[in-house]
Amino acid sequence: MPRLLVVVLLTVLSFAQAPPKITAVEGITEYRLTNGLSVLLFPDQTKATITVNITYKVGSRHENYGETGMAHLLEHLLFKGSPKHTNIPQELTEHGARPNGTTWYDRTNYYETFAASEANLRWALDLEADRMVNSFVAKKDLDSEMTVVRNEFEAGENSPSGVLEERVLSTAYLWHNYAHSTIGSRADIENVPIDRLQAFYRTFYQPDNAVLLVAGKFDEAKTLALIQELFGKIPKPTRKLPGFYTQEPAQDGERQVTLRRTGDLQVILAAWHVPAAAHPDFAAADLLTVILGDQPSGRLHKALVETKKASGVGAFNYTVHDPGTIVAYAEVRKEQSLDDARETFLKAIDEAIAKPPTAEEVDRARTNLLKQIELTLNSADRVGLQLSEFIGAGDWRLFFLHRDRIRKATPADVQRAAATYLRSANRTLGLFIPTDKPERAEIPATPNVAELLKDYKGDQQMAQGEAFDPSPANIESRTKRITLANGMEVALLSKRTRGGTVVLSASLRYGDENSLRNRSVDVALTADMLLRGTARHTRQQIKDEFDRLKARVNVGSVGPQATISVETVRENLPAVLKLLVEVLREPSFPESEFEQLRQKQLAGIEEQRKDPQTLAGTAFQRHIMPFPKGDIRYISTPDEDVADLKAVTLAGVKRFYTDFYGAGHMQMAVVGDFDEAAVTAMLKENLENWKSVRPFARVPRPFREVPAVNQSFEAPDKANAFFVAGMNLILRDDDPEYPALVIANYLLGGGFLNSRLAVRLRQKDGLSYAVGSQIQASSLDHSGQFVSYAIYAPQNAAKLETGFKEEVARVIKDGFTAEELKAGLSGYLQNRQVGRAQDGALARSLANNLFLKRTLQWDAEFEKKVAALTPEQVSAAFRKYVSLEKLSTFKAGDFAKKAQD
């Protein structure tokens, strides 16, 4: 055959093998392989990361009798390996990935975010292709992972409000599987046969039931060819997907459920049936949810929180395939009347029909929702994960269609939704009352999604940014640092980002060890009050303006410093900064907002005070940080926190602000798409003359030698227990052995399911869903900590503690292997690179480095030291610093009840 003809034929075959383009919306292009796999490609050159997300259109909605929790259990087993990838947790750790898998009503997804490279991309795609149809799903793995999932189930049982939500939904739905929590029934989790789980896997984990999304910095043509190579060889399944035809009948009267369990916080929670996410009314229902549950503008907040009948309220809905629900709740402290709150709660809901939402309320809710959507669209990795919800609901393009519907929804649409769906007969909270004229809220059927979206185009594609190298050297070459006349330090890193996103991170430091004595509550409440009103704007007006400006703004406190974070877009940054300066410099401290904040804080303490993690964690911190009461470093008990909150005064908080707040010891970093000169000028104009009255001196964290203790606390009626162990270390992060100790801990309790502790206590013994360890070291004091933690069933306390000690002892005795270290170093260093590729994390790092007088050259040198480590150095560092004899152990759980079982 002539050579030219061969080339032509090969070219034709190549084009024939390329998957066809199905559609494209705003930079996301869909292709379809011949085996049915849908592929979404979303290139974004602005971050040096790639996210691979595969969504299977299967969740708890698809489970049959005796199979509740099967979709979630299967999600866990897909991390147990396949023929080509026998140790998935190890591979994820080696590649520095930030992975997870999640299960919901209509879908299950698996994703990995990792440093952008062709090798990493091939690995991730090969992993997902292999475990799509070749995962082991073995009996031995089910036996060990079942207990882990059961432990996760037990952790959920510790939350009365979470259990109450499950009970309400199981009452709201008579027949549909949305009645069942995704975690499943404990009996089904413990007894599901492996053959049923394998059959479930073979049915739903197939290319024609999956959507693969690749988002981030990659070559589109090469990636499409790679997907064709790796996924295209999977045969098109011959089985036919089962149909699901159960429809929930219209609710014909109020329903009520009561939950009685140990706890300190009363909760009211109600659900109303609403249409599926694909239905046009869902946009109005979404807006209605914000109008009811937003804070502080929401009707529930005004009716209950502002009148001091409840400490907290909220509302949310579910983005699901079939008709779903709006859920609203109110948290009521013990000293408040539950009956009074319930009456007011239901009256506020009923008034949404009698007093329809105003144009102002609808516009405010619309601005809020659209802000969240637009900021999500500015980040390719966030878009990829958010699309999983709409894939489960019917089609990924519903995400954009839903946005468009929110834009167009009118007050009349929201009023109609309220009148149709918020009827008392459609509510699950109340009593059954016979009536001659029953009311029914008929919920429309799910639309034909394919017909709905056949010609959908969406908005114009969002502006793209630059390909940014997150190496320390490049970041340093692009970062400009300035110091204002009052001492405020600023780091500026300007770069083009997707959608013009820009982030800001700042720390405002104040006081010293003496002046902050007995001021811990003032410290926390002062920061929390800043966004609740200024001399010129109310809390609501501040929130509305930030929403209009597409800005996420948070102000809080961490120890003796206020923390500030901002995310917005380039064109709005000047206005956002102007309002932020007003928030910082002109707070009005409204008395009503102060009281609402106090009640919210008290409710939060009461909700958590008997939680095992609070009991054991607080006792542990009090032991290893034995500072006297009144010291800013003192660890208080929940009872002390309650007493302090009841005693604190608004006048005291105002005095604290007046005496301590100023920008003289503030560090700020701005990263993203912005005008350096304009930002610099604005900061100089507005903050350069702002100084605190009181002087600042860093509060040190000296090393404390404490004895080793082993303490246990009873947490009645809590199905899940908490374990924490640790010790203080004479350690600073510039000590020669610090890099080796960090890696030793990474191998022991870091990484993703592949650390020594995770392999032993989760993968092998099946005792714990969440287990890990940390090394903490100061940058300024020779003071650090080694801490390990785990959740587990109370009856497994002895097994878990034995397993933990055996693994620590094994490291001390045998150390780490060369192979183990090689894999760990690769993963750890890539994970740091992924961290620098996230603008928010980078801004926090740059701001903190200003305080430490460091540049990212420190990071480069640290990573160079890490890369050169030997197994002997890592093992020796762990032996030197960590001792079983010096570890203090604290446990909390319902041990007494389990001892009787």
Question: Can you walk through the features of this model?
Answer:
The chain has 901 residues and is α+β, with helices and mostly antiparallel strands. The protein folds into four domains: 22-231, Metalloenzyme, LuxS/M16 peptidase-like (Cytochrome Bc1 Complex, Chain A, domain 1, 2-Layer Sandwich); 265-445, Metalloenzyme, LuxS/M16 peptidase-like (Cytochrome Bc1 Complex, Chain A, domain 1, 2-Layer Sandwich); 472-687, Metalloenzyme, LuxS/M16 peptidase-like (Cytochrome Bc1 Complex, Chain A, domain 1), CATH 3.30.830; 710-900, Cytochrome Bc1 Complex, Chain A, domain 1, CATH 3.30.830. The protein has 34 helices and 21 strands. A seven-stranded mixed beta sheet has the order 1-2-3-7-4-6-5, sandwiched between helices. β2 and β3 form a beta hairpin. The longest helix is centred in the first third of the chain and has 19 residues, at 139-157. The protein is globular, with a radius of gyration of 28 Å. The model is unreliable at 1-16 and 430-436 (pLDDT under 50).
What would you say about this model in short?
This protein is of the alpha+beta class. The protein contains 34 helices and 21 strands.
Descriptive terms for the model:
901 residues, alpha+beta, Cytochrome Bc1 Complex, Chain A, domain 1, 4 domains, seven-stranded mixed β-sheet, six-stranded mixed β-sheet, 34 helices, 45% helix, disordered N terminus
SSE diagram, text form:
Blueprint: H1 3-17, E1 21-25, E2 28-32, E3 38-43, E4 49-56, H2 70-77, H3 88-94, E5 98-103, E6 108-115, H4 118-134, H5 139-157, H6 160-172, H7 186-191, H8 194-204, E7 210-216, H9 220-231, E8 265-274, H10 281-293, H11 299-305, E9 312-317, E10 324-333, H12 338-354, H13 359-377, H14 380-393, H15 398-408, H16 411-421, H17 449-453, H18 472-478, E11 479-483, E12 489-494, E13 501-509, H19 520-529, H20 539-548, E14 552-557, E15 561-569, H21 573-585, H22 591-608, H23 612-624, H24 638-647, H25 650-660, E16 666-672, H26 676-687, E17 710-714, E18 721-729, H27 738-749, H28 756-764, E19 771-777, E20 784-792, H29 797-814, H30 818-836, H31 839-852, H32 857-867, H33 871-881, E21 888-893, H34 895-900
Parallel strand pairs: 3-7, 12-16, 17-21
Antiparallel strand pairs: 1-2, 2-3, 4-6, 4-7, 5-6, 8-10, 9-10, 11-12, 13-15, 13-16, 14-15, 18-20, 18-21, 19-20
Helix pairs in contact: 2-5, 3-30, 4-9, 10-13, 10-15, 10-16, 11-12, 19-25, 21-26, 22-24, 27-33, 28-29, 29-33
